[in-house]
Design goal:
Elements lengths: L5 E6 L2 E10 L10 E5 L3 H9 L4 E4 L9 E7 L5 E9 L2 E9 L2 H11 L4
Antiparallel strand pairs: 1-2, 2-3, 4-5, 5-6, 6-7
């Protein structure tokens, strides 16, 4: 209850997902703003990185010595994910995984020539 909340999805007694909100910044100008967090299970990231079709490209920002790549893909259950990763010591290291927004899903279908 209250202004900021957290919701947890459970399956067989184990958390499989969550979503939370929190204050964005402590300044008065941001009083009505909230920051949100959404959990994506590690196995979903792994599925999306393996599944085809996917879209992959270089991140446009400079992150120093590590090159960042972006992948748009789907999990086995059809969840659309946007993944940022780097490669370290020959292994893929996810930096961030989140659900694709509507614009990204549209671009994904255009780029992969698939139907929603």
């Amino acid at each position: 209850t209250g202004r900021y909340q957290c919701f947890v999805a459970m399956k067989a007694g184990a958390p499989i997902g969550w979503s939370c909100s929190a204050p964005f910044k402590q300044k008065a100008a941001y009083e009505t703003s909230a920051e949100t967090s959404i959990y994506v299970a590690p196995y979903e990231t792994e599925q999306a990185l393996r599944n085809e079709p996917f879209v992959e490209y270089d991140a446009n920002r400079d992150f120093g010595p590590e090159k960042r790549r972006i992948v748009k893909s789907r999990t086995d259950s059809g969840r659309y994910l946007f993944i940022v990763y780097t490669e370290r010591n020959g292994k893929l290291r996810p930096i961030c995984t989140r659900p694709m927004n509507e614009k990204e899903r549209k671009q994904y279908h255009e780029q992969t020539q698939t139907n929603p």
